[in-house]
Amino acid sequence: MICVILLADGTRVDSASLLGMGTDGFILRSGDYVLKAPKLYGYMDGKGTVQKDDDNLIHLTHLDAEKEVYQRLQGVPGVADFISCSPNGNGSLAEYIKGRGPPSLYTRWAWTVQATDAVKNCHDKGVLVFDIALRNFVLADDMGLRMIDFANSALLPPDSSNDMSKVDVDGCTVALDIFHLSNVIYSLLARREFHIDCAYESEWPALSDLPCVNDVPNGHIVRKCWMNGYATVRELQEDLHSCSVQSML
Fold this sequence. Notes:
Shape: globular
Strand order of the largest sheet: 1-5-6
């Protein structure tokens, strides 16, 4: 039997439209849109008949929490517009870089600032993102970044944004968001993708286990993140905005 990807109505998905895959969903290109669909599978026999996987009913409910996060983040700069699917699609940032090579330092620095601004805007709305990675940013038509995939995010009471630094939701914390964001920043500025699993602060890696940043433009900011030197993304944002791309040339 051949495994195939399905939409909720049973329609088969052309594998060529698959941009990425998360824990609970597929990221698909749909014309000028990017669509996140539940992770549904079917199995096609030799006669072309597709039988749906028994677990599909469970997967259909997995995106409900993420929908609530998108509704909270509606209109937030740096986050993909939510209209059931998003019109911000040139593919994920990871795939773009892999396919075309790293762009200019000016562009990579702009993306660094945009990614940080987007995470800070999410925190301002009481959302801990957690799964911050190159694969979870897409490029809009203006080549600016838009954040997607909030399947593992924590939606906090609206007043929690007043002091997010003390919040811990099943391991989701501001510190971990900054750590994951710093890995994206390193990947962009060092021109090599870097990711390390760190689901809890207790799993925080030693600085000696992380890459050297001496040859990375403004690498001291990445090192400060890795040393847990920022209490909030706003502090990181201020450091980034105080740096000039000209100083890195």
